[in-house]
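anyone seen this seq b4? input:
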Amino acid sequence: MQTIFGKNGTETPEPVKAQVKGSVPSWLQGTLLRNGPGKFSVGESEYKHWFDGMSLIHSFTFSNGEVTYRSKFLKSDTYKRNVKADRIVVSEFGTMIYPDPCKNIFSRAFTHLCNAIPDFTDNNLINIIRYGQDYYAASEINYINQIDPVTLETVGRVNYRNHIALNLATAHPHYDSEGNTYNMGTAIMGLGLPKYVIFKVPANASDEEHKKPVLRKVQQICSIPFRSTLYPSYFHSFGMTENYIVFVEQPFKLDIIKLATAYFRGVNWGSCLKFDKDDITLFHVINRKTGKAVSTRYYGDALVVFHHLNAYEDQDHLVFDLISYKNSNLYDMFYMHNMRQETSDFIQSNQHFSPPVCQRFVLPLNIHKDSVRGSNLVTLTDTTAQALVQEDGSVYCQPDDIFQGLELPGINYNFNTKKYRYFYGSRVEWTPHANKIAKIDIESRTHMEWQEENCYPSEPVFVASPGAVDEDDGVILSSVISPDPNISPFMLILNAKTFEEIGRASIPASVHMDLHGHFIPANV
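predicted toks r here
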């Protein structure tokens, strides 16, 4: 693993043509943008965590059976400052850069306490998101950086705080059929009462001349008070159905006081997240049209969740699927000293990591006051999930375990908010990066896999065939890299129905492992 993980990536600023083996479907027209950490050292300084690496944006463009590739580092303020200084000068989540000892550290600490949240890096390395017709590199901070989806040039930085009271926001929004974007963020002290905020950016938010910020039209849908003022829940994504937003307030919490005093105490921001195994998980259901929360109190056992799969309504039930963990140790797996171990050593030293489990929760929406206490209100016949009425009228939810050992999930997004059957993801088997991708059939509880020796595929992305009716009529795209110098990086194209390889496009350039991305059809 050491040979490919943690090495600095290189830019391919001009498009290069890939060599296609097999075929690229003629109907596949568009660009797959990908984002992830790509620079792990500057000068003599190194990042301590893989999620800290500076963003490297990739594009794979499909046109008339051909594939071209290019990549550029996100020219964020963080990137510019680090490169100018020839060392890391901006702190990241797992790598803290301490103030110059000549400066008044006590004054700095006091400032952070007053503001509660320090001014974070703008190293947006997690995903590519769309607001209006504009595309942004995003992470989980108050900054996003607009990019040109064709040239990959960094257009400019946008601060959420200039348009809506947020300290943090997710990099996993949802899009409705009209092109509107829904997202969630956290407003902590200094921005009014602490709360979680759900907001919407209309499809027509973009300015044709790109002179006005796309967030000028942002609309707050609702806010949800923190369960505990100083310990808000961490969240990486959320669920959305035709009529509702689903927010999982998990007992994986951010300690605000520790965060605000991290510099003073000499610890990184990542250490300010703690999992409370003795707490519960709350499930908030908000009507996305009225902004009002469903009054029923739904809850479950303690869990940690990063990624939602899908959510939909079925016969007066709200069904949502997510990938859960029994603890929060996953983050520790990605410290660079762990990732650079040989696989056998990695397995030996990381047995305490909880495996990911795809779970289905079902929340009955119309609960009668006279429901029998202790009874299961789930009447759907295609799941074993339960919702048990408690003495106080709250509902205790127990999940249906669908599949174990999969992360970075994706679906045919045409079925987002709808009842669906298939999802795709990276198979996780005791390595920090998956060496398989899989298709899961929820109905039959079976799965298919693609694997090739010494190959590491990225998150699989589904692209539907034109006019497709079947949910799995389309292709799966995944960027694949290898530590073997005889295996060039390639874009893998699978038949989504059969999971058989249709073709691969070998890239005559360096390609780096990424995290998430966004496919832009050519006609958009």
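Residues 100-117 have pLDDT under 50 and may be disordered. DSSP finds seven helices and 38 strands in the chain. kinda curious what u guys think
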